[in-house]
């Protein structure tokens, strides 16, 4: 995961952007994540230095070890230290894991988000597995994993700052005709995809991820041959949407109407057919990827 840092002094536009983030309630990128990513990008990165950055944050350390021991990585022996986790996972996977843990910790007061975070973690793991399983050129497992974590981060922001937003989520989930974000936009003049994209930009995630977050409910942008949405972003959206479809089918949790609206363009984006879903479902269920 490549984190892009600004190469110039803040401008008036930058300051306005920062003001808009504060007004919406988007948490700033934590210093520990910036520090970790800066060290991880160095040509001579030392895992001992990365370990030192994480050592003072017990939650991050424990979270990284827990991530390394998850079924997604399929390690034969359990990881017991931060250094071992960093060494075994490597820089990119470790960066994805740290970003995901920091994201969850950015909303400490929202106790009603536990189920939401668990669902996002399940989809992100399955998205990373799907990227490896499909082996499509230009679809990276670490990016798919990160996108799965951040795809719906705007929901966490809006739940924390918009009264009765959870009721609106219920209405949007049940909508069969309009897009999910159209329902939100009509009610609160913004939507979780736009908010999530702003958060991704402010946290310096790759552009293809922020663009994918902005358009992940846009069937036309995903499926049109003339769409300006980059192919890499389309593949990320499709992978996460198929992951959500598999998770919902397995667990019967938070069922939405998004697959009927987005399923066809998602399959097209990845060059898949309907019958391929059955094989992917069976393969994912055979392991522990669905949180069994």
Q: Would you give an account of this structure?
A:
The protein is mostly helical. The protein has two domains: 78 residues, no CATH class; 183 residues, Hypothetical protein af1432, CATH 1.10.3210. The chain is 68% helix and 0% strand. The protein is built from 16 helices and no strands. The longest helix has 24 residues. It is globular. The two termini are 28 Å apart.
Give the topology:
Blueprint: H1 12-24, H2 31-40, H3 47-55, H4 58-68, H5 82-105, H6 114-134, H7 141-150, H8 153-161, H9 165-174, H10 180-188, H11 192-202, H12 207-215, H13 219-223, H14 231-251, H15 258-270, H16 274-286
Helix pairs in contact: 2-3, 2-5, 3-5, 4-5, 5-7, 6-7, 6-14, 7-14, 8-11, 9-10, 11-12, 12-14, 14-15
| Secondary-structure element series | HHHHHHHHHHHHHHHH
Largest sheet data: none
How far do the termini sit from each other? Answer: 28 Å
Task: Tell me the number of helical segments per DSSP (H or I, 4 or more residues long).
Answer: 16
- Judged by helices, strands and strand pairing, the structural class is mainly alpha
How much is the average pLDDT? 83
Radius of gyration: 19 Å
Which architecture of the largest domain per CATH?
A: Orthogonal Bundle
| Low-confidence runs of at least 5 consecutive residues | 1-18
CATH class of the largest domain: Mainly Alpha
**CATH homologous superfamily annotation of the largest domain:** Hypothetical protein af1432
**Beta-sheet strand percentage?**
under 5%
Provide the number of structural domains.
2
**Helix coverage percent of residues?**
55-70%
By oligomeric state, this entry counts as: single chain
Morphology call: globular
The number of distinct β-strands equals 0
CATH overall fold name of the largest domain: Hypothetical protein af1432
